[in-house]
Known about the structure:
By secondary structure, the protein is α/β, with parallel strands linked by helices. It contains 9 helices and 19 strands. It has 2 domains: 1-112 and 179-251 and 342-399, FAD/NAD(P)-binding domain; 113-178 and 253-341, D-Amino Acid Oxidase, Chain A, domain 2 (2-Layer Sandwich), CATH 3.30.9. A hairpin with a 2-residue loop joins strand 10 and strand 11.
Amino acid sequence: MSYSFLRIAREALRGxxxxxxxxxxxAPKPQYDAIVVGGGGHGLxxxxxxxxxxxxxxxxxxxxxxxxxxxxxxxxxxxxxNYLLPGNxxxxxxxxxxxxxxxxxLNFNTMVSQRGVLNLFHSxxxxxxxxxxxxxxxxxxxxxxxxxxxxVRAMVPQLEFAxxxxxxxxxxxxxxxxxxxxxxxxxxxxxxxxxxxVDIIQNCEVTGIRVEGGRVLGVETTRGFIGSAKVxxxxxxxxxVVAAMAGLRLxxxxxxxxxxxSEAIKPMIDTVVTFGAGHFYISQSDKGSLVFGxxxxxxxxxxxxxxxxxxxxxxxxxxxxxPQSSRLRMLRSWGGVMDMSMDGSPIIDRTPIDGLxxxxxxxxxxxxxxxxxxxxxxxxxxxECGDAAGPVRQRCRHR
Length: 399
């Protein structure tokens, strides 16, 4: 069903008895035209756009848990396109434009909030770097404003401007950046894909990839074998594990990235702020909680939990930037498993196995890219795979 104001009003009067399930819970078919492994943002977006843009409806998206249980529900919700290099900027700006029309496209409230992303700088050299990035953005038609300290103070007066160690000298602002509700994004994609005939199969873990004569035949799952001549992998931090089922070795390490939420407070920050003196970023959710995060944990892991030294490091950065946050209680933290490539370059390409496709290596940047498979990435965001016996090698630099 379509969501609308009239529909909501009608169901309110009826006690909500007319709502149906957001998407079906079908049993897997024995054969599909295409299978997407991974029910996160990239996997569901791939299934949706295959149906919408290409008319391919006999598609299955396989998720080993439930929709929203993986990295899609474990991030800090930031969306932006404030990149520097020529290959990156048009690519992420294309995604930013998709975000701006996503709610109308999906007929679902993904809570996209273009509240702005403000990157602070604390030295003259950092100001020059911010000016260079801003100029590159504007040359590519992307909004960017270089703010001095007085403009930053007027925008976010709560920041610590008196620090002698990290004086705030200004910031680079992208007003069109902001946040989106992470679980609403995957729910919206799942619902929209389901309406176009795509099967969303939850609690269906892939345990093997069947390959014969250099061609993919389908996937082994906990719910039996599912055949398809086209299989796409969008498994984030588990990309290496799943690709190894087909004999591929990826240049990817899996690391935990922690995020944190404070207790709810009155509105304090109406934008996204990043700390220029350390890897720290913060915003405020609609519920009033401060949402923040920092660096990845420095060791390889597939666990969705982090270590205490990183918690301390993020808390120190939070208090240095916002001293009043020292009085808040931290309610919870969580960890997502990042697929970290060696140079930060994502891999979006065919593999040496005919019919097997790979979307991996997004590092920190997976959530804020709305992935549409028919869009050809620019130079700098593409990669190609090597021979099946050797490691996958990347073609272009991302940073």
